[in-house]
Amino acid sequence: MAHVLDVSSARLQFPALKSGFMFADNAGGSQITQSSIDLIVDYLANTNVQLGADYSVSISSTQRVFSAAEHARELFGAEDKDEIIFGPSSTANLENLARGMEGSIEAGDEFIITGEHEANCGSWKKLAERRGAVIKYWHSTPTNPNNPYSLSLKVEDLLPLVSAKTRIVAFTATSNLLGSVVPVQEITKALRAEAAAKGAKKVEVSIDCVAYAPHRRMDVRAWDIDFCVFSFYKVYAPHISAMYVRAPALATSVSSIVHHFLRAEGPWKLQPGGPGYETVYGTTSVIPYLLSLTPAHNLDATFAAIAAHETKLVTALLAYLTAPEQAARGLCVVGVEEPGLSRVPTVSFVVVGERPMRSKDIVRVFDERGGIGIRYGHFYAYTLASLLPPPVDPEEGAVRVSLVHYNTLEEVETIISVFKEIFA
Ligand SMILES: Cc1ncc(COP(=O)(O)O)c(C=O)c1O
Q: What residue ranges are annotated as transmembrane (predicted)?
């Protein structure tokens, strides 16, 4: 039975939402639950000692920090908590992973990357430069011939890039600019078949789930991927990231030095200068929070309810943004224009044509009015933003409204009313 999300009770779990401010920049970072804050405070107040000693408080502290790896394992759908690594951010996690892989990359190896967020592109570009590997871009292409900005990643554009030398393929499960949900399992299956047919010996797949994890359930095993990251500050907890490295990859592709940092004594060992233990412990609120969202008390039901509610939000927003009056005004959605399950409520747009408007100026109206947080820019998807056709100033990028399940239809109506004033 499908469960309907009780948005009002969900909202009560977030202290920041009581302020009345409308948080509509959630792809930049979500709000944090009271339960996560309580865990952090409790850790600092009661178990803030060095891990690994034999006295009772240290035992309790160690158990608390270790338990976070099991929670992250479940969120990833991974097999073993030893495949989980914590780090200060997804960008840092992927950078350290790429550094650890130097020994397993040869000159002439090919990496296929997208133009999406730099976290899962920049680390591979730098690794390619250090090792003499070749970068190939899998670019997003328009879906609607009448809107050159209606971009999405398509498997038919990926497969011709695959060759016997393909070594790494890195893409986002959801773009933080386009808002699309990419069918990771389908793509990876097609990619692996193509790579096998062309004689590639070892292909490792790296998926950025940072903009996906707040909206859909991850399943690294079903997806048949090797590396995956998401950031807890986008899923109602503090700023810290978890990375999945599939056991065989950890054993064969990552150098022992970095392996030592990655996994020496437990999940917190990943990064020198990495996250505080209280922050790691603060992430153990995420699963209980997600389970609290429906009476079914399971993650599949929660994510189905989240997807259903968010689809209502994005349908209302896109109905306004894609209406003929807006098209006549020169407004183009950046990303897929159709609402539905293959989209999350992260909606970007530009206003071009005879009466163009700067993204900055549109967002300024919201800022001056106060009470609503949205933003504009390239959102660190530099390559994608700089290739938008026809070009827009990449620093200026697109206007982005990004919602999550705690946003309401009333909030969407308010955002639309501000747009109406701007485009009048
Ligand atoms: C799609 C995507 N990937 C990666 C990141 C980077 O995450 P972190 O800030 O944890 O490095 C972000 C952050 O906004 C993102 O939206």
A: none
